[in-house]
Amino acid sequence: MSHAAVNGITIGYDDEGTGENVLVLVHGHPFDRSMWRPQVDHARALGWRVLAADLRGYGESTVVPGVTPLSTFAADIAALADHLGVAQFVLGGLSMGGQIVLECVRRFPDRIRGLLLADTFAQAETLAGRAARHDMADRLVREGMAGYAEEVRWKMVARRNPEAAEYVARMMHSAPPEGAAAALRGRAERPDYTPVLETIAVPTLVVVGSDDAFTPVADAEYLHDRIPGSTLVVVDGAAHLPNLERPADFDAALEALLGRVR
């Protein structure tokens, strides 16, 4: 594990593998970079250099209370890549991480060689959804992560996979409440990324768990239908975290994407 000082904060990250082909992975809420461990190992074995960082407010990165918009997360990713001397990369994200990836596409498309969009969606938040995210942010600061983590455990992971559910629960319980709340407030104000989708001109993989209740298959189809030449993979029997629930299936799809880029 390593740490870098960028954009006025400290970011904890893993930088594994070598070479000019670089994969950058962005975790979702309320997790940390360890959620990508199967994919880091797999891509590294394929000869890729893999960067997986904790977003600000999570894991080993600085917690900044208040509001963290997706644009700030995107700026942190670019700054870390600059710090490590990485000009171009394949960029992947899951859930909130996928929305951060779309913000990166909007801000610096010339740096991106390929895209992985997992269990995410492009549309702006609804009025009801915005209020719910702000209410949840307030609750996390007031009560901590424990209650929320137990409530959503079996929506994050299908009940047929208790081992993955236990790992995911540990990540959620250990997430800093102030950091998670700041991300929720920022995500509530996110723009509609639909206009960005038709501008994507790099190999793109859209992945979703067949049983995902947070971002159903229809959300993945929405992305797939609007991103030219994209590939859609539905991981059977997985919920919101197919990369941990069905890593072999997820890694096979990722490997095909990296092969297209390479």
Automatic annotation (TrEMBL):
Does Oxidoreductase appear among the keywords?
A: yes
Q: Which InterPro entries does this UniProt record tie to the protein?
A: AB_hydrolase, AB_hydrolase_1, AB_hydrolase_fold, Epox_hydrolase-like
Domain AB hydrolase-1 residue range list: 21-247
One GO MF annotation is: peroxidase activity
UniProt keywords, alphabetically: Oxidoreductase, Peroxidase
Q: Is Oxidoreductase a UniProt keyword of this protein?
A: yes
Q: Which PANTHER family match?
A: HYDROLASE, ALPHA/BETA FOLD FAMILY PROTEIN (PTHR43433), NON-HEME CHLOROPEROXIDASE-RELATED (PTHR43433:SF4)
Protein name per UniProt: Pimeloyl-ACP methyl ester carboxylesterase
Species of provenance: Actinophytocola algeriensis
